[in-house]
């Protein structure tokens, strides 16, 4: 490893500390921004192309799949060549693909450009978490992770509302133009960014990619990765099914859907701040265990009462969304803390695993047939039970430095 850079000496001449946090949050938000902005348009897009909801949903599912694969490429690459060049290359591809999505003439064109958009956007997510580890330590790192998570989940609240209110004035194509503009703003931030990596991997590119396996051999990291990635199964199941639940199930308009979606997103926004407050009084282990238990309870509420109406459904899901969000910050902190080196690879695996499990949730929720509410509730119950059991097992075997 080249130790030519020292973490304490890394500073952002142009962005400053606050600017760096904002840029990291924006880069981390590429997944929700790239999906949630056009969620209100999904049913209409299916009608425009004359295809089924399942085929239209491929624009979501394949995006997450290739986003996950892209992370495994960009993460190790950023350990070898640095965060900044990887970020700029990925953003250039993302911008071009977003323009291609806006110009698509058939559903298969849109799917193809969404795949390219996913690969480009994954570079942003791969370096974002790694930059937090590059620059910050200890409690400061945990606080920044919580702030970034809070800023990130603002996008699920704002994006559907923005998309719904844009649709009367533009088509779904205009929504992809907005994504291209977000890519341009991020590119400006990337150009102002000064390299954050404290040391670079000196091996070959092939050896760099193999570091993914080295990271996975760390039992503490691997066990935490499975537990906290499972949380994404429930959250992305909701993202995938929400427009169909609210618009087709409850008969809401696109604008009505966006407001109820935002209600659930408020829980996601509040989660990291709730964790920071609770962590001053309660141990991290207790907070995480309680979070998983609340997910189980919330899932039960959705199963029992979620079909009564849109407001009842949103309120029943609220506690599960709140606590599912609150455990993300300590989860990310603990996973990064287990790995002294190969931060880019660790970051890639964290994001990739979450999206893989999340993509599974997007498929599983539709296996319930027309009763998507019951399927979503059952997923929350199952995820909460499995995560709680896994968390207790990790603590009992002493696999992790808490």
UniProtKB/TrEMBL annotation:
It is found in: Cell membrane. Keywords: Cell membrane, Membrane, Transmembrane, Transmembrane helix, Transport. One of its GO terms (biological process) is xenobiotic detoxification by transmembrane export across the plasma membrane. It is a multi-pass membrane protein. Signal peptide: none annotated. It comes from the Archaea. The chain crosses the membrane at residues 20-39, 51-74, 86-109, 115-132, 144-166, 172-193, 220-245, 257-278, 287-307, 348-368, 374-394. One of its GO terms (molecular function) is xenobiotic transmembrane transporter activity. Residues 20-402 form the Major facilitator superfamily (MFS) profile domain. GO terms for cellular component: plasma membrane. Belongs to the major facilitator superfamily. Bcr/CmlA family. This is Multidrug effflux MFS transporter. It comes from Methanoculleus formosensis.
């Amino acid at each position: 490893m080249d130790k030519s850079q020292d973490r304490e000496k890394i500073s952002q001449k142009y962005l400053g500390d606050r600017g760096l946090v904002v840029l990291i949050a924006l880069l981390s938000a590429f997944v929700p921004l790239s999906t949630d902005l056009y969620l209100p348009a999904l049913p209409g897009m299916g009608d425009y192309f004359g295809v089924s909801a399942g085929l239209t949903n491929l624009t979501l599912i394949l995006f997450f799949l290739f986003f996950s694969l892209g992370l495994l490429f960009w993460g190790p690459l950023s350990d070898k060549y640095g965060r900044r060049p990887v970020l700029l290359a990925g953003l250039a591809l993302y911008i071009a693909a977003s323009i291609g999505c806006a110009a698509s003439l058939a559903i298969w064109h849109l799917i193809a450009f969404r795949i390219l958009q996913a690969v480009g956007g994954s570079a942003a997510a791969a370096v974002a978490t790694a930059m937090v580890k590059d620059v910050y330590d200890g409690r400061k790192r945990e606080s920044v992770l919580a702030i970034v998570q809070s800023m990130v989940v603002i996008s699920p609240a704002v994006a559907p509302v923005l998309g719904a209110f844009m649709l009367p004035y533009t088509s779904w194509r205009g929504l992809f133009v907005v994504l291209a503009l977000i890519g341009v703003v991020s590119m400006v931030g990337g150009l102002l960014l000064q390299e954050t990596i404290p040391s670079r991997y000196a091996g070959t590119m092939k050896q760099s990619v193999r570091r993914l396996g080295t990271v996975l051999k760390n039992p503490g990291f691997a066990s935490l990765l499975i537990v906290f990635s499972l949380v994404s199964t429930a959250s992305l199941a909701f993202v995938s099914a929400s427009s169909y639940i609210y618009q087709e199930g409850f008969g809401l308009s696109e604008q009505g859907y966006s407001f109820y979606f935002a209600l659930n997103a408020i829980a996601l926004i509040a989660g990291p701040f709730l964790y920071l407050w609770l962590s001053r009084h309660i141990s991290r282990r207790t907070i995480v265990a309680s979070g998983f238990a609340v997910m189980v309870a919330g899932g039960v509420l959705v199963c029992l009462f979620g079909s009564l109406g849109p407001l009842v459904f949103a309120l029943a899901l609220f506690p599960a969304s709140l606590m599912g969000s609150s455990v993300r910050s300590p989860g990310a902190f603990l996973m990064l803390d287990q790995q002294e080196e190969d931060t880019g690879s660790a970051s890639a695996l964290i994001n990739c695993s979450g999206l893989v499990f999340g993509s599974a949730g997007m498929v599983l929720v539709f296996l319930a047939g027309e009763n998507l509410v019951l399927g979503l509730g059952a997923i929350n119950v199952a995820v909460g039970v499995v995560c709680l059991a896994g968390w207790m097992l990790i603590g009992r075997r002493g696999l992790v430095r808490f």
